[in-house]
Amino acid sequence: MKRFEEVDRALCPVDPDTGEVLEPRAQPGYYAGFSTLAQRAFWDEATRKVVDKRVKDAPQRRYLSEQAWEFWSTVFAHLIPQTDRTPERQINLVAGLDHRLEVNETIGYRYEDMPHDRVVYAWGIDAINAEAKHRYGGEFMVLPYRQQDVVLKALHDGRPEAASDIWKKMSVHRFWQMIMGDAIEAYYAHPWAWDEIGFGGPAYPRAYTRLERGEPEPWEVEEQRYAWAAPSASVSDEVRSVSGHHTEAGQHSLLDKGGVR
Amino acid sequence: MKEPLLGAFEEHNKRKHMVGPLQQIHAPMRRFRDYEEVDYVIVGVGSAGGVLVQRLARAGFNVVGIEAGPFWDTEHDWVSDEVGSHDLYWTEPRVTGGSDPLALGANNCGKGVGGGSVHWAAFTPRLHPSDFEVYTRDGVGADWPIDYADIMPYYEQLELEMPVAGPAYYPWGHPHGYAYGPHPMGGVGNALIKGCTALDIPVSIGGPVAILSGSHGDRPHCIYRGFCIQGCKVGAKASTLVTHVPDAVKTGAEIRDRSMVSRIEVGKNGRVTGVHYFDIEGNAHFQKAKAVIVSGYAIETPRLLMHSACAGHEHGLANSSGTLGRYLMAQAGNVVMGRFDQPVRMYKAPPAHALTEQFYETNAKNDFARGFAIQTVGPLPVAFGKQMIAAKKAWGWGLRREMMDYNHWATFGLLGEILPWNDNRVTLSDDKDRFGLRVAHVSFNLHENDKNLIKAAKKKTEDVMWAAGAEQVVQEARYAHLVGGCRMGKDARTSVVDKFGRTHDVANLFVCDGSVFPTQGSANPGLTIQALAARTADYLIEQGAAIFNSNKRDMATPRLRRELAPPATWGKGVPRLK
Amino acid sequence: MSKEASGLEAAGTHDLEVVRNHIREGRFQRSLSLLTAVTSIVSGLEVAYEHYRGSYSRRVMYTPVILSVLLAVAGFAGFFSKRAARTVLRWVAFVTLVDAGVGFYFHVRGIYRKPGGWRLPMTNMIMGPPVFAPLLFGTSAYLGLIASYLQREESLHADPDANEDSWLTRLLPSAAGRELISEEQDIREGKFQQQVAIVAGVSALLSGFEAYYSHYKNNFRYKAQWSPVAIAPILAGVSFASTKNRRWAATALPVISAVAAADAAVGFYYHARGVLRRPGGRKHLLYNIMYGPPIFAPLLFGAAGMLGGLASLLRRRNR
Ligand SMILES: Cc1cc2nc3c(=O)[nH]c(=O)nc-3n(C[C@H](O)[C@H](O)[C@H](O)COP(=O)(O)OP(=O)(O)OC[C@H]3O[C@@H](n4cnc5c(N)ncnc54)[C@H](O)[C@@H]3O)c2cc1C
Ligand code: SF4
Predict the structure, then answer these.
(1) For B165-187, what is the mean pLDDT?
(2) What is the pLDDT of residue C9?
(3) B11, B349, B351 member nearest A211 (Cβ)
């Protein structure tokens, strides 16, 4: 993973009013002082073990080649950028992917217009490199940050211009869904990310008591918002709501994944 | 408090098999030998299988439940953590396709004793009387071979056994009340109440959910920790693992876990003789049985019957009608998310705690038949992040920004009835699983009626979200709850099983799970699945040995055997208003 | 001031004087029976819906509901008939008091059986059965029991049929038996200030504590939520002091009791308002009563104040 020291300060978020770089924080987000890990003693032993392992175990590369590991680390650093975090508090995003591919664990299905997961990650490298070459005449890894962002945005938008042979065999939407899904599973499963977004974390045996009005538990903290803008070198900050007040059902065929209910 | 009194919590009772903080599994469990001919083999100890095993064991039959996944020790195996709970789901390979492919895996099925009831949200509304005659009323879908009056006593019974918490008066369908009191609200429920009240839509508060609002013997009540979908370590949420399986083991059933049934054997006389299965090490076994019940879920049940094709059943066992695997259904389950100015913290309280069925029935003003429900959902961060990819196309810094607002969002799920279509089906793919068995291929396509319904349902759900005071509303398309694929019917030419779950083709082979649904309504299926299982069990018990040695079909309705309920059922709850 | 008005006023003060004398002399069986009935209805309603929240998951949870109906009936009966007051009311109140003890046991056990049990006292008291609620429920039973030993308002002489519990005294060792008889005697004569003061103090502490953790659950969103928490220990302190000191009983006790009662009334208003302000408000009134601020809880706090007030009017035992 790219460490902060290696990263240009131009890649850090800025104060939108002054335009000044915001110093990286041990804990970005609006819940300064909140720590789920400080509550470990209140969790059951099984949960504590699982979360501890996530926080303490050094990332291990078993399945991906060194280049592939580097490649996906770089891509994931665009999917979920962490330059607002101090280096020792950045979360490894590819270790889980490596493990999953090694033991050949899937989410329990594959789309018929998608190859097997291991193949997805192999073809993904080729397709992204092809897009990079097509747009900027160089492999993805050698491009500057902004150009890398633009290459990935083309896939995000579902409009790649190169590697049509690969995209014929692999849906670009589903590809995007998969890599985003893996990045999210790594980042938002980490207690540091819970602290960032103010999620209470594990809650057994101790329960929640304040269920209504978004009130914090005694050990949670109130939100303290601050303004920040994405670094100018990035193009990933704009979000587009797919559904305003009215949308058609066509979106069904494109995006569905994960599970609640 | 920095720590609980007496220090951090440690796992207790390491040597006992616990299915909750206080509840333990009777030991030793009875074991049968492969060569012993047991009365019943039940394939899959999930929602339906758990109830069947319990009833049949209590009635004195020799029963083995063969379950592909583990027999959970909840204190040891389960965690309060999203990603750490992957093992609860069926993550064996499958292929999904069609014009509107379904997400399977965590979105659909469980693996392990309790099956889907381990990770369901436990919404337990009943079907409406109209659901049993959709074809007669609306000229679409199909009719059930039973009507509401047939299943109603079983609804009432299962609502006591789980038990179901909910309002004292539930106005939709056949009005009724619940034995356990309603739950307190979380932020999402309050948003639903506000939105519905503003639009003058009645709303059911605090249920019906199979989550304890008061303690129940050895099961403590809900602690509102919001991890229902990750398995309820508290034991407050009903799963057959805590409601029925403990009694089954106590009364002499065997649960053979981590054993995957690969084929059902058919003897010379055209009757099934037992099942082939692989144990955890991959060794093949054959368990003899006088009768077999398949309760493997809407995908695995058709798959197993297809794998069991043999001479005389070339297109799959019990598939003379050609409908095996067809008429598969999922409910439209779009998630509508609203951002509120004030924090909501939707991770508190169970995801399931309020709903409205005001739009459930066919309405002549609509351009579609049937209807939908609106329910609360409460995704945890990982699930919510994935929804943000779809709903807002968020990534990179945009995703980080949206996620920092996690606590400001509330989410509703619509539950829309999709009709049974012939081309929505399970087949066998060329992909193989670890045992070399071909995996299921699921093909799903929306039709005109479905699309119109989804559009209207989405609009209404978004309206409610706006009315609740959201300042931004987005939505994500998704589906929930697979059923069908082995539907029941009167006519052997158009259905796989009869109204008791007996296959039309083989007299001692039964199917009992969600796959027998001819239509699905817009109620979550779990309660109906368990009610049907209890009814099938009553039928089998009534028929006694006739199932084992005769091919005659007695279609008389059996008596409801209340006395076979788990004893812990009784002596709790309020008398119900009927 | 017109003659008429001053006459009315005189009549008013006269009435007050009569009431005070009745209490001093223990001649208020009728009114206390009535009060018992009323408090029993209130606490019966409270326990009915609180236990509905707990889904009546044990049959024993019905007992306080049934008993409070019986106690209310017995209270009314005691209002009309001396006989009823001395028999039915006494026994129903006694059984209810025992039931309160049983309830206390089950609530303590219920918390123990929640995940984390007593190792998470605050969480589980908030989310589990309210520990002290059963004891507070016993308040009305206590009033009923006392009422059953008093004299009627209209009775002029000491009662001829005293010592009707003599069978009980026969069972006890003679010293204890004598003590019991003299206690009964004192109650009959309104000389039980200390006893009521102790009960008032204890009940103030318990309901103050209940107020503390249920307002804590709400994060003390309104400053007013601190008021019962602040008043309760003072009321308790003054009540206990009153047992030792006649002056306290005559001065501070009525004042602080009145403050507590007034605070309870304010609390009742805010709780009722809170119920209506919940999502769905009036449309889902029953649900909102169940899960909104407990509307009767402040009245139980007020009951402690009322006991304090009662104590201040009574006479002390002469030993
Ligand atoms: C996230 C989520 C939330 C849900 N929420 C709700 C809800 O709120 N309300 C509701 O009513 N429903 C809900 N459901 C749906 C509900 O869980 C299922 O409909 C129900 O559990 C299906 O019951 P079943 O008996 O058909 O199958 P299952 O309960 O899935 O049981 C099948 C069992 O059979 C086993 N099995 C399968 N094949 C084999 C084989 N070949 N050999 C051995 N064992 C086998 C499986 O391992 C499994 O344990 C939810 C589902 C999900 C995924
Ligand atoms: S919210 Fe309640 S039912 Fe759901 S997991 Fe937690 S304790 Fe169990």
Answers:
(1) 93
(2) 60
(3) B349
Gap between the Cα atoms of A20 and A9, Å rounded: 10
pLDDT in tens, B192-227: 999 999 999 999 999 899 999 999 989 999 999 999
CA dihedral B137, B138, B139, B145 (to 10 degrees): -50
Kindly give the distance from the C-alpha atom of residue B386 to the centroid of ligand 2, in angstroms, as a whole number.
Answer: 22
> Of the bound ligands, which one is closest to the alpha carbon of residue B236?
2
User: Which protein residue's CA is at the shortest distance from atom 21 of ligand 1?
Assistant: B116
Ligand 1 centre distance from Cα of residue B44 (Å):
9
Q: Ligand 2: which atom is nearest the Cα of residue B230?
A: 5
Of the candidates B161, B163, B157, B244, the residue with the CA atom closest to the CA atom of residue B207: B163
Least Cα separation, residue B248 to chain A (angstroms): 27
Q: Of C127, C132, C103, nearest to C115 (Cα)?
A: C127
Check whether C69 has a pLDDT greater than 90: yes
The beta-carbon neighbor of C113 closest among B22, B213, B233 is B22
How do beta strands B425-432 and B509-511 pair?
A: unpaired
pLDDT band per the 50, 70, 90 thresholds, residue C167: low
Mean pLDDT of chain B: 94
Query: In the beta sheet, which residues pair with residue B38?
Result: B289
Q: What is the pLDDT of residue C319?
A: 53
Residue nearest to atom 4 of ligand 2 (CA): B228
Architecture of domain B38-563: 3-Layer(bba) Sandwich (3.50)
At a CB cut-off of 8 Å and minimum separation 6, what does B105 contact?
A106, A107, A108, A109, A259, B89, B90, B91, B94
Nearest residue on chain B to A185, alpha-carbon basis: B382
Predicted model pTM: 0.91
Residues B26-54, mean pLDDT to the nearest whole number: 95
Q: Does the pLDDT at position A258 exceed 50?
A: no
**In which band, very low, low, confident or very high, does the pLDDT at C181 lie, cut at 50, 70 and 90?**
confident
- Rg of chain B over CA atoms, in angstroms? 23
Chains that touch A (3 or more CB pairs under 8 A): B, C
The pLDDT of residue C317 is above 90:
no
Quote the longest CA-to-CA distance of chain B.
70
Among the partner residues B80, B233, B396, nearest to A79 by beta-carbon distance? B396
The amino acid present at A225, given as its one-letter code, is R
The domain spans of chain C are: 22-153+167-189, 191-319
Answer whether C317's CB lies under 8 Å from C186's CB. Answer: yes
Query: Does B9 touch chain C if contact means CB atoms closer than 8 Å?
Result: yes
What percentage of chain B exceeds 90 in pLDDT? 89
Q: Which residues of B touch C118 (CB under 8 A)?
A: 5
Substitution candidate for ligand 2 out of B23, B185, B223 with most atoms within 8 A of CB: B223
Return the pLDDT at C146: 87
Which of A210-219, A241-250, B401-410 is modeled with the greatest confidence? B401-410
**Which residue does chain A place closest to C291, by CA atoms?**
A212
Residues in CB range of A207: below 8 A, 6 or more apart: B223, B224, B225, C115, C116, C123, C124, C127
ipTM of the complex: 0.92
A61: nearest Cα among A113, A99, A107, A30: A99
